[in-house]
Structures are given as structure tokens and as C-alpha cells.
Amino acid sequence: MIVDRQGRRFRNLRISLTAACNYACTYCVPDGKRLVAAQDELSAEAMLRGVAYLIEAAGIERLRITGGEPLVSPKLDSFLRGVSQLGLADISLTSNGQLLARKLPLLLECGMRRLNISLDTLDTEAFRSIARGGDLATVLDGLQQARAAGLQVKVNMVPLRGQNLDQVLPMLDYCLANGFELRFIELMRMGHLARDGNSFQRQFVGMPELLGMIGQQHDFTQASAALDATALRYEIPGQGFFGVIANESVPFCRTCSRLRLSSTGWLHGCLSSSNRHYVGDLLDKPRHQALPALQGLLLKALGDKQEIAFSGGATVMKIIGG
Ligand code: SAM
Fold it and tell me: What is the rounded CA–CA span in Å between residue 65 and residue 69?
């Protein structure tokens, strides 16, 4: 097992099934152009071999499928069917929910139990101006269908000053009423926001302010979370839980166990590092040739992790999947 001197190792893999997305969220893509799949994206078979090799070489236990938008990918079906056979302890998916109702039968058939659905507002106009794609009612319908099917749902919301701060409490109440756990994600300095500090500062809302807003409406206490969890969890007694992924306010680099594989075959050990390591060619090789080379690259990727705090990264979330 590859472990660094802070005791960190890769346990959680995030795989970006495709860079294509049916949204163009303002904080993700500045020019508003929806991304399409890259020409050189890995096939579902290569990705499956990648996951199998990484389970062996890095000790990956949990997988999150993300994107781009994973539900738009034609690889979804064969990837999901294959990956559910690899013996992982947990497989989950992050999606914007636009195609959730349509893909739900497939997700259920492949044994998916947990979903994270990104939704920044319940206001139709604000939804349009932030997501720049899709339709709010369709997402809400997908969420209700997932709930009725018994899936465990977390909702991801990025609070943005001037755009959806008035939605913090309505979103929390909606999630509590529906049994969804709301995750506030502090805006991260990724892509254009890493280059344009003013734009980042203008929009950023930190955890203390969020908790202050919630505290005016609800009593809450801190709840337990896994040691390497990115979210701080809170319980509103008798009503449910919410969390804050406080990248800036309470950095979690010291316990980060995440590894990312992009849709074009690059390993990323840290969102805050511009280093990446190409493994696409290794995935065509047999196990005995691929694994030693992969281990060398994993060592480098682990060395890319920040010691204490996320300091920003040039990579666009859409490429490597949050
Ligand atoms: N399309 C899927 C979705 O919408 O969930 C998966 C990919 S998306 C990049 C994953 C998550 O990253 C979303 O919850 C999105 O809000 C979040 N995200 C993207 N850019 C971000 C940024 N700069 N700061 C914080 N969260 C960001």
C-alpha cells in the first residue's frame, strides 16, 4: 500500500465518465459553453480495467462516478454494469439530476444505493442563470422518483453571494422535508476562479456565515462523520442532517484520501495541484505490466497532495469531476 508521511493513502476514487455536460454552471465554465466529450476519452472497458488496477495498486475501496455529467455518457450502462462486479465497498454517483428519472431504472438495476444531486436553488430564474442548461422541474421530479425508489440522496449546493444566498434556508427546509441531506459546498478556487481572485471573493460565502444564517432558523449540533470525510455534519434534532464542505474555512487536506481519474486517462492526486499523470496507455496493458508502472505514478500523485490547505487549482471541475 502506498502511504505518505502524513499517513494518507488513496482509498476513494472519483472517476469522470465524460467531460461532457448538459449544464454550463457559472462557477464551473466562465464562457457559458457546454462542454462536449473529448475526442480521446477512455472507453468503458479501459475505465473498468483502470478501476480494477487501481483497486489492486492503490487499495481503492470506494468509487464515486462523476463528470462532466455522468448521466449523459453513452458509456454509463456498460460501465455501471461492469463496475458493480468489482467488489468495491461502495459505489455512488454525482449528477445534476437532469436525466435522473430517465436513468433511474438502470441505476437501481446496477445496485446503486446512494446519489449526490447538485442543485443550487429552488428558484426557476436563478436556476436558469446559474446552471445555464436543463430545467428545474425535471430535477425536482427526478429527486422525488429517486426518493420513492428508496435511494439515499444528498443534495449539493454551492452558496454564491448575489445569486442564491436567499435559497440557503428554503433549500435546507426542502431537503429536511424530503429526507435528503443537504451539503453546502464552499466555492472553490478552481479554473477561472483560481485566476480571477476578485470574482472568487465577490461570490464566496464561508461556513461561519452559513451556519449563522441556519442558526437563526434552526437549532443544530455537530454530528459524527468519517475520519476522512470532507464534510462537517450537523444534526437538526428531530428533523435531519446537513453538512458543509468547508474547503476554505476548515481545510481537510490532512486527511484527504481521494484520487481522481479523468475521462481522458489522467490521474490527479490533488485538486489544488496542476500535476497530473497519464495512465491511459497502461490500461491497455496486461496486469503484470500495468501494475508496477501504475504504482510509480500513484506515488507521484500522492506526493501532489497539499499538506494543510487547498490553495486553488487551474483545473476545471468539469474536467475532473469535483
Ligand atoms: N455534473 C455533475 C453534477 O453537477 O453534480 C458532476 C460534476 S460537478 C463538477 C460536481 C460538483 O462540483 C457539483 O456539485 C458542482 O456544484 C461542484 N463544483 C463545480 N465547480 C465548483 C467550484 N468552483 N467550487 C465548488 N464546487 C464546485
Answer: 9
Is residue 2, in this structure, part of any structural domain at all? no
Who lines ligand 1 at CB under 6 A? 21, 27-28, 66-67, 69, 94-96, 118, 156, 158, 185, 187-188, 190, 193, 317-318, 321-322
Ligand 1 binding pocket mutation candidate from 93, 114, 118 (most atoms within 8 A of CB): 118
| Integer angstrom CA distances of residue 310 from 1, 160, 163, 273 | 25, 19, 24, 9
Residue 309 lies in a domain: yes
Nearest residue (CA) to ligand 1, atom 13: 118
pLDDT along the chain (322 residues), means of 10: 92 96 93 82 97 97 97 98 96 98 97 97 98 97 98 98 98 98 95 88 97 98 88 97 94 92 96 92 96 97 85 64 61
Q: What is the CATH number of the domain that holds 209?
A: 3.20.20.70
Q: What is the pTM of this model?
A: 0.96
